[in-house]
Write a structure and sequence with these properties.
The structure is a single chain. This protein folds into five domains: 89 residues, Leucine-rich Repeat Variant; 101 residues, no CATH class; 95 residues; 100 residues, Alpha Horseshoe (Leucine-rich Repeat Variant); 170 residues, Jelly Rolls. The protein has 31 helices and 14 strands.
């Protein structure tokens, strides 16, 4: 036998018992049953609304108990009556009459509300009784129940009761007028909805009534509201409860009115509530006559959505590219970016020389999203002349990115001519961006030109690997390549495979010199890519010869992963070992090292060591101002 703790609330015991006998209740049912026992009438009302709305049969006894409670607030008891009718989907004729005749007005008003949907043959009699009630709120709810059954025929009853609504009866009056639905009733409902003191309660009254005649009334409220207004959200809820074709038709008529406030409100509604492509043409037509910036912006945001078939509106977007407001021009570009059947490089050409950098930025960003095959091959540098030479760093960086994205080998030479000054400049950020762009364009055999232009040593002879360990033991040993450099010689060396945390036995092999190429524009010589695997527990050598015309003092920057020792013309000039970190970059560097180059050929020898992970070394030569020095291969 399952024993339940004594502390479990009665509402949960009801839920647990019913769970064993019926289908599982909605997810929030248990919490709402607990809320019925709250001392807060607000929480009780929330629970009753939920339980009734979801027809939680498990709650029947608890709701009935609250209805019959002599200590509960009368209004809450009225909500319980409505909730109970929803759950049971009926009323008991023998019992319901007492609520119609109850001495508390909130319970009579609730009874009238129940009679909108329930009561069967007795409903007409009860409604007639409640229409004669002394309390206006009771009579108005009864009028709503009557109007729901009689429609336009109910005007004679509805008219006198809804002439001067107050906040107390606004909800009931709105329902009565909505159910009546004749022209006079809808006109009066429109005035009531427009009254700031009555708007909120009136919307609560009609939000779930499905009637196409209500759509224009709801739409008419939007121009005066901000999207953060609570009433704005209530209107959207009411519109969502309408038949969607009717909403679309109503919104089209609303936009076609030509009033800019309505056009703007309609565009915002399309963006937030419905992206129906059929609303595109009327909105575009209305926007062609609009003069206010905020109206055109709202319209562009709506039309630019991918769901609105933006290609149908590309001519409109192209026209607004010339708008006097830069925000409109930028937004037009973003809309055009969603169009698939447009030659963006042609359409956005003038936007690249716009006086506002945000427009240029939007154009470059849009072009970067387009297929590279659409770019003007071989002419892209000329096309991007203005942004490539812009004073704005963001614009230049975007232009470099676009050049890298859409350029081809045919663009390399023009790009090299245009950007070479940046490669030899002192701005590290611009240099790296320009180099990256050129690297994407350069033929494989010309990457070295971009590398050398920045002062990096690009061409090497390499040999390895010689067996190393975590303590870099082999780094401190003298191997044959250190004794003499002879590119024709080969040497015996050993290596091991490091697999899943264990080391295999050393294996002997013959190593020879080979050409090592820096194939990335950042100047790094990847030792692991140049030498036979594995690159772990390894030592390798790299030799670079360069020619300068005259003797000169230069600045040498060196960095690498994990360790390096450097000789220049036979003299050791630097040695650095980075602390080992498993499976992480171990960066060693020696920057700003002043060295002397002799006239003619100068030889750099690098001994580089690695334990695991990445393995590379990089050397760069500049003058004291940070500008790359000219040199060439011997």
């Amino acid at each position: 036998m399952i024993r339940l703790p004594h502390s479990i609330p009665a509402s949960l015991l009801i839920l647990a018992s019913a769970w064993l006998q019926a289908a599982p209740p909605p997810a929030g049912a248990g919490r709402m049953l607990q809320q019925l026992e709250s001392e807060s009438w607000i929480q009780q009302a929330e629970a009753l609304h939920y339980l009734g709305e979801h027809r939680v049969e498990l709650a029947t006894d608890a709701v009935r108990s609250l209805l019959n409670s002599g200590t509960a607030h009368p209004w809450v008891r009225g909500r319980a009556l409505v909730s109970l009718a929803q759950i049971e989907d009926k009323v008991e004729p023998g019992e319901f009459g007492k609520w119609v005749a109850h001495d508390l007005a909130p319970l009579r008003a609730a009874a009238a509300e129940v009679l909108e949907s329930h009561g069967a043959n007795s409903a007409a009699t009860w409604i007639d009784i409640l229409l004669k009630d002394p309390e206006p709120v009771v009579k108005c709810h009864a009028a709503a129940a009557y109007a729901k059954r009689k429609g336009k025929e109910a005007w004679a009853v509805t008219d006198p009761l809804t002439t001067s609504p107050t906040s107390a009866i606004a909800r009931a009056c709105a329902r009565a007028l909505a159910f009546t639905g004749n022209e006079a009733a809808l006109t009066r409902l429109g005035r009531q909805l427009a009254d700031p003191d009555l708007t909120r309660e009136s919307l609560r009254g009609i939000s779930r009534i499905q009637n196409a005649s209500l759509i224009p009334l709801l739409l008419s409220l939007l121009p005066d509201l901000e999207e953060t207004d609570l009433n704005y959200g209530a209107i959207l809820t009411a519109l969502q409860n309408q038949e969607w074709k009717a909403v679309t038709a109503g919104l089209a008529a609303f936009i076609k009115s030509g009033d800019e406030n309505r056009v703007r409100a309609g565009a915002r509604l399309i963006t937030t509530l419905t992206r129906s492509p059929e609303l595109g043409p009327p909105l575009r037509e209305a926007l062609s006559k609009a003069t206010r910036t905020e109206t055109i912006e709202a319209g562009l945001i709506a039309l630019g959505s991918a769901a609105m078939n933006p290609d149908e509106h590309h001519e409109f977007f192209s026209k607004t590219l010339k708008h006097e407001e830069s925000s409109i021009r930028s937004l037009s570009i973003r809309c055009l970016a969603h169009c698939k059947d447009v030659n963006h490089y042609e359409v956005l050409r003038e936007s690249l020389v716009d006086e506002d950098f945000e427009v240029v930025q939007a154009a470059l960003s849009a072009l970067k999203r387009q297929p590279a095959v659409n770019a003007p091959q071989g002419r892209l540098v000329a096309y991007l002349e203005a942004p490539l030479s812009s004073d704005n760093e963001t614009i230049r960086a975007l232009a470099y990115d676009l050049l890298a994205h859409a350029g081809s080998e045919a663009d390399f030479r023009p790009a090299m001519a245009a950007l070479e000054e940046l490669l030899t400049g002192t701005d590290e950020t611009l240099r790296a961006a320009a180099a990256k762009a050129l690297g994407a364009l350069a033929p494989e055999d010309q990457i070295g030109e971009v590398v050398a232009a920045q002062g990096y040593l690009a061409h090497w002879m390499v040999i390895g690997t010689f067996l190393n360990d975590k303590e870099h033991k082999a780094f401190h040993e003298v191997h044959e390549p250190e004794k003499e450099i002879d590119f024709e010689k080969s040497y015996k060396a050993t290596y091991i495979w490091l697999l899943e945390g264990r080391s295999d036995k050393p294996i002997e092999r013959e190593v020879t010199w080979g050409e090592g190429i820096v194939d990335q524009t950042d100047g790094k010589l990847s030792m692991s890519a140049q030498l036979p695997p594995p690159g772990s527990f390894a030592v390798g050598y790299a030799v670079a010869d360069i020619h300068v015309d005259t003797e000169r003092e230069v600045v040498l920057d060196i960095d690498g992963d994990d360790a390096f020792r450097i000789w220049l013309n036979g003299e050791k000039i630097s040695e650095k070992i980075a602390p080992y970190q498993h499976r992480k970059d171990c960066l060693a560097e020696d920057k700003g090292l002043e060295v002397k180059l002799v006239a003619g050929t100068n030889r750099f020898i690098v001994k580089s060591a690695n334990v695991d992970y990445r393995w590379w070394v990089r050397l760069r030569l500049t003058d004291t101002n940070g500008i790359p020095i000219p040199f060439r291969r011997p």
